[in-house]
Every structure is written in C-alpha cells, then in structure tokens.
Design brief:
It is a single chain. The protein is built from 21 helices and 15 strands. It is an alpha/beta fold and 419 residues long. The chain folds into two domains: 180 residues, D-Maltodextrin-Binding Protein, domain 2 (3-Layer(aba) Sandwich); 194 residues, Periplasmic binding protein-like II (D-Maltodextrin-Binding Protein, domain 2). Strands 1, 2, 3, 4, 7 and 14 form a six-stranded mixed sheet that branches. Strands 10-11-9-12 form a four-stranded mixed sheet, with helices on both faces. Strand 5 and strand 6 form a beta hairpin.
C-alpha cells in the first residue's frame, strides 16, 4: 500500500512538473511573440471589419495585435504625432499616402522598411504616385496597404429607374442631365455631406472630369497662376458650384457614410466619393452592378486620382519593436491579407501582382484603368502640403456656401496654393 501510494505520488508530481514546464514554455512563447500597437482611424462598420483581416493575418503569423482605434482621421493623426514627439510612440500609425508624414521623415522620427520594399519589389509593383510619397531620398518610410480613388461617381439603380435615367452618364453634360431628372422626380440628386474635405472631393472630381489631366496637374502639381486664372479653370469652378443645386437641406455636416446611406435607401441618386464608400454598400448587402453603379470617370482619358492608406513605423532601436514592425509590414502585404482587406474596404490591392479576379465589377474597372500607367495621377494631397490643402479647402467651402464670384474664388485659390 505504501509503495502504491508512493508511486501515485511520483506520477502526480511528474504530471505537475510536465504541466508547469509546458506552461512555462507557453508563457515564454507568448513573451517572445512580436507585440504591435497599431493606431488607426478605421471605426465605421465596414472599416472595422476590414482591419480585422490584418489583425487576423498578424496573429496567424505569430504576432500579438493591439488595436488602438481613434475616430476621425485628423484626431488619430494628431494623437500619433503627439505620441511620437513625446517619446511614447505606437508600433505603427496610420496616415494617408500623401505628404502628411513628410515632417516625421525630415525629423528622423521614422524607421525605414527598405529591406522589405526591396525583397517584395515595391518599385516594380506599386503605382508611381504612391512611390513618390513613401520613398524619400532612396528610402521607404511607409507601408501602403491599398489604393483608393477619391472621385468615383456612385449611383442608385433604383433612383435612376424612378427618375427615368436609362443610360449611365458618360460625360459631364450627361451627369448634370441625370441630376436634373432625379431632382424633377422628387429625389435628392446629389447625396453630399457639407464638410470641407467632402467639398474638396467634389472639386477634384470636376477638375479631373471637366478640366482633364493637363489642367489638373497645372493647377495642383505646378500651382500655375496662369492655369488657375484661365477660362478653362473658371469652367471647372462653375461646374463645381453647379453641383450645389442638387443637394438637400440636410447636407451641412453630414458624414460621408450617411450620404452613402441615402443611395442605399434610394432617397438620393448620386454620390461623388472615394471607393471606401463601396464598403458601406457591401455592409448593406448591396451588389455592384445590380443595386448600384460605379463610374470611375466621365470619359476614356479622365485621370484616375489615387491615394490610399499607409502605416508608418516610429523610430525605435528596441529589437522586439523592430521585429514587430517588420512582421506587420510583411503580413499586411501578403496576397491573402491584401485581397480580404481590400474586398471589404472597397479599395484595390497596392501590389499589382495580387489576383483580383474574385473582386467586384467596380474593382475590376479600377484595375483595368491602372494597367494604363498614364491615367494614374495622385489626388490633391499628394501634391499639396497640409497647410496648402487647408487653405484651398477654406476657399472652396466659402465659394460653395456663399455668393462669392468665381473670379474671386480663382484669385483665392491662386493665393492659397503659393508657397
């Protein structure tokens, strides 16, 4: 009996030791896993679902994802910058693929990801307007994760049918004719949120579709006073202001996704918004080409205005943090994560070698356009500093909301865009 008890005791102790050893190994593995605090502003239903695909991919690769979501892009960027400057940075922070993070680069506040960019052939597989932003003095300082086009023209099939619009608009004149029919049918022609950045999008749409690529670049890239004061640019501003006649009284301060909901419900006919709006249609279980239409440009040569989202990696020499940053950069650009994220987000994969055949008709149209590299042009913030863009928005919003003469708007824009 004593020997049997002793044997059972030994077995019990052996089991406990084995469990303790296994737990210790598990704890050690958890401690060794790359931990990343990822700061972003994706808080709408579709955006949250999309970013979870990145989180899932990171966890599957052995990392620990810490989600810091902050509502509002401007607020999120401000918090990220304050934490970086204050010495308590997140592992990664979201910015747009624009000049928003150039000051951080110039101040030496970011780690580069040159090894990953070279390994994955970013120079060959990413659009040039994106490379022009993320690559500074030969180094890659951000990981772009998508391509957004800012000025898609979305329309409700049900609203078009009710208003008797039988043909998808293919020119600016046809767009305004469709808006007239929608208004006459008692519908809201243009679903719009009266916020400066949304008016900025309407302006870009008219500059690209009415003015064309050459004028677009002369105004925004070259900031040419001659181009800004030209008759051609005056026509662009007049078309922009004309759109105001088709919005409803509830437009001021409306969020973009609430404007998209007006198309989803059939209360409005058209919205001019980036392709992130497609995520809202998807969340409402609406199908591109069946329930809603998407127009990338009113003409075969209209520039495809691109930007997107990117993550920067604050400067650190901590090897664990650097390992977490590199794992993030790698997993976010794997084909599977790219495809699943962008399907939900409404955007296109940033790498041209990702198989997009399973994506919707709007994405297919965008990918087809990007095969013609001459049509890929940076959106407004690719060319302007945040200060210049803010000054331009002030002029555009004043022009939109008051009786400012178009000539005064031209002069205001010329002044806003000077260095």
């Amino acid at each position: 009996m004593y020997k049997q008890s002793t044997g059972a005791t030994r077995i019990a102790w052996a089991l406990l030791a084995a469990l303790a050893f296994a737990a210790g190994r598990s704890d050690a593995a958890a401690a060794a896993a790359p931990k990343a605090e990822v700061m972003h502003w994706w808080t709408s239903s579709s955006e949250s679902a999309a970013v979870r695909k990145f989180a899932d991919a990171y966890r599957a690769a052995g990392g620990v994802w810490g989600d810091t979501a902050i509502a509002g892009a401007d607020q999120a960027k401000a918090v990220a910058i304050n934490r970086i400057v204050g010495g308590n940075p997140p592992t990664a922070a979201q910015f747009n693929t624009t000049k928003q993070f150039r000051d951080l680069i110039d101040q030496g506040s970011l780690n580069n990801v040159d090894d990953i960019a070279v390994r994955d052939r970013w120079d060959q597989l990413m659009p040039q307007p994106v490379l022009d932003v993320i690559k500074v003095k030969g180094h890659f300082y951000a990981v772009p994760v998508d391509i957004h086009m800012s000025t898609w023209i979305w329309y409700s099939k049900a609203a078009f049918k009710k208003a008797g619009v039988a043909k998808e608009p293919a020119t600016p004149d046809e767009l305004f004719a469709a808006l007239d029919k929608l208004k006459a049918a008692g519908l809201v022609g243009l679903a719009h949120g009266g916020q400066p950045w949304q008016e900025n999008i309407l302006f870009q749409a008219m500059l690209a579709n009415v003015g064309g690529k050459d004028l677009y670049l002369q105004v925004l890239r070259d900031r040419s006073p001659k181009a800004i004061n030209s008759e051609a640019f005056k026509k662009v501003l007049q078309a922009f202001k004309r759109l105001q006649g088709y919005v409803d009284a509830g437009s001021p301060n409306r969020n973009w996704n609430d404007a998209t909901a007006m198309l989803i419900s059939g209360k409005a006919g058209v919205q001019i918004m980036g392709d992130w709006a497609k995520g809202e249609f998807a969340a409402a279980r609406q199908t591109a080409g069946k329930d809603f239409g998407c127009i990338p440009g009113l003409g075969a040569n209209v520039p495809y205005l691109i930007q997107g989202d990117a993550f920067v990696f604050p400067k650190t020499n901590n090897p664990d943090a650097v390992r977490a940053q590199k794992l993030l950069a790698t997993t976010m650009l794997t084909p599977g994560a790219q495809l699943e994220f962008n399907k939900i987000k409404g955007s296109l994969p940033i790498l041209s070698n990702v198989d997009t055949s399973s994506m919707d008709v709007c994405a297919q149209a965008g990918m087809a356009i990007l095969k013609d590299k001459s049509r890929a042009v940076g959106m407004i913030e690719v060319f302007l500093t945040p200060d210049q863009n803010g000054a331009l928005q002030d002029v555009l919003t004043t022009y939109w909301n008051t009786r400012m003469p178009v000539e005064r708007a031209q002069k205001g824009i010329a002044s806003a865009l000077q260095d």
